[in-house]
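Extracellular solute-binding protein: structure tokens wanted.
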Amino acid sequence: MKRTIALATILLTSVAGFAPLKADQKEVTVWSWFVQSTMQNSIKAFEKAHPDIKVKYTYYNYSPEYITALKAASASDSLPDVIGLQPGSLTQQYRPQLEALNGPAAKDWGDGWQDKMFPVNRKQILMGNPPGDQNIYILPQESQDLVIWYNTKIFEKLGITVPKTYGDLVAAAKTLTKGGIIPMFQGAADGWQNENVYLMLANQRAAGLVDKAQKGEAPWSSPELLQAMKDWRALFTDGVFQQGALGAHAYPTGAQLFSQGRVGMMALGSWWMQESKFPPPRSQYVQNMDGFDFFYMPALNGSDHASPPVGGVDIGYGLTKNGGRNPSAWTFLASLTNGEGLQEALNDLNDLPAFVGHEPKGDVSPHVKAMYDRFMADLPKAENQRFAIPAIADALDSALAAVASGSQQPEDALKAVQDATDKALKS
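Answer:
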């Protein structure tokens, strides 16, 4: 998601489609944090297919600019026609101002359209809905799979093999550090990246348990979740993460350093393939992604297997009440999620599709295609990455930060998450 703060396109806002409307054209307004160069390609393809519609796109850095802009526009009833969303908590914040999409999707794509989504995506688009509400307020555009990316050329130079155990991971980090390379860059100032790593750890201990805990079906004090919190702390104390991680950001800092060959490993996702599509200058590592590959979090102490795939919807879009009064808005949203607009995003390797039957076209190197196929094979098995209720996600973010800094013990931190969960589920 946050990787869409593209390295070559970091601007607060940008508008695609500067030309004034022609007399017979209709306009659709769109806000998102989606890479603006890719969105412009999607808009170009859409407008070619629909010359009577003009799309005006405003790009925001996700945090805090986009979140702040949405809140302000929502309060003044001035949301655009289409807004970028994540499933669960972000969608639920704006659900009262969103149109249900079941009807128009079924009309355009047939009654069985949901069956073409990957299982984790079908689950996530309903996350946080009130009991009995089967309406769909977000349509996914892309999916993601969370992994540990590594620099293959640096590993080869320093004689490091892909870690199979936690001991291997610590040893690799020490070798990287000794070689003057940042071991595993963690943007621990970003709650989203901390959540992602914790989900890798927890799902290795007990797949699906975090999902049960956020629903109140299992306690956050479960031994597996407690051990995962201790594992999280160990990544800092054992030197797997870099010094100063608590004040670091994944984007742009970490991603820039990683692409430049100054970082050995980084917890990101399938979206990292898009680095090969950014315009020159590109480092030797990014060209055709020849310097990168990925693995799953290796077997932790007491485990005999790596972490399972974790992920789901990368980014989706909702139709606001304002957009519901503009028939052209649905036409663009449909293109962006399951039409010519989506195809352009896939061609840019922005991420994986949310619907089966799509794949990138054009200039894709054999190495990237092989990684893409591995991701696609794993996606149907992915564990849920998202949180349905903002207060629970916020509490977990605070707990992870506190444990990482050593200011709170894992037991106390998880108790705070449990208290926040209990309160949120009762409200």
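Residues 1-18 have pLDDT under 50 and may be disordered. The first strand starts at residue 15 and ends at 16.

Cheers.
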